[in-house]
From TrEMBL:
An example Gene Ontology CC term for this record: cytosol
PROSITE patterns reported for this sequence: CARBAMOYLTRANSFERASE
Organism annotation: Brevibacillus centrosporus
Top-level division of the source organism's lineage: Bacteria
Any GO BP: 'de novo' UMP biosynthetic process
Sorted UniProt keywords: Pyrimidine biosynthesis, Transferase
Keyword Transferase: yes
Protein name: Aspartate carbamoyltransferase
Protein's job: Catalyzes the condensation of carbamoyl phosphate and aspartate to form carbamoyl aspartate and inorganic phosphate, the committed step in the de novo pyrimidine nucleotide biosynthesis pathway.
Annotated positions binding carbamoyl phosphate: R54, T55, R104, H132, Q135, A260, P261
Occurrences of domain Aspartate/ornithine carbamoyltransferase Asp/Orn-binding (ranges): 151-297
Amino acid sequence: MNNTGHLIGVKDMTKEQLVQLLTRAAYWAERPGEQANVLHGRFVANLFFEASTRTRFSFEVAQKRLGAHVLNFIPETSSAVKGETVYDTIKTLEAMGVEAAVIRTKKEGLLQELATSVDLQLINAGDGTNEHPTQCLLDLLTMKQQFGRLDGLTVAIIGDLRHSRVLGSHLHAMPKLGIKLLLSGPTSMMPQPAQIPNGVRIVGMDEAVQTADVVMMLRVQLERHTESLYISKEEYHQAHGLTLERAKSMKPGAVIMHPAPVNRGVEIHTDLVESGASLIQKQVTNGVAARMAVLETLLKGSELKWEPSLVTANY
């Protein structure tokens, strides 16, 4: 969330802005299914140029729970197939009275380019391997619900780190909130050293699993790899996945998370996906609350009345 009224990424957000959004997300999470009317008469468009299930539908559920009119853009049946640019599409929607656009794209930095030349509000639903800010928020909300705090937690993010836009947001958010972040994965899938903030450690798989309060697994994003993987799914699972044996070494009270979609039997054993330690489905549930908070904050702004007891909650 930046000063121009967009949610482009977490990188430029302050701790206070993160806490404000998390506070409002917690408000909505405590009211599952509640229908509000705070965005009555407002038009919001979802433009997904990449496949999505959880992000797309949770945004739509969030928009409809807030009372907004929702337009779902389908690239294959739009003027995009005739060569129209995303900029021209956005300007067209803007001219029709659409006030916000939720965008998922393969192109990193697209929303930054658009932000300086459009008047409607932009929300990043994932851009390339750059950032995925609302996934970051729902993950943090889930951790806060589980542990009652964020400051002082140890989180291990494991897997295909180089191609993960979820990691791209967490690298900026977690240190701001006092979380100790550990990274682990195949050497070929590690982020560039320049991308890793001070204090974030690269560790071996066993140390990551054994010392973390939250073990967050990431899938191998084959669609973003430019080279073939010379390893089978079974080999990857044994070398870098959360196997049943590795899971036994987790700390008492530690939990498993995953931004999904999950490749069962690759980065995580299928029996662990819905185990007692798993918060994966809780993350999906919290996706609606986190996106309600973002939409409401961007479109209502100063009209919001924050509950003091929630604003001062310990993060």
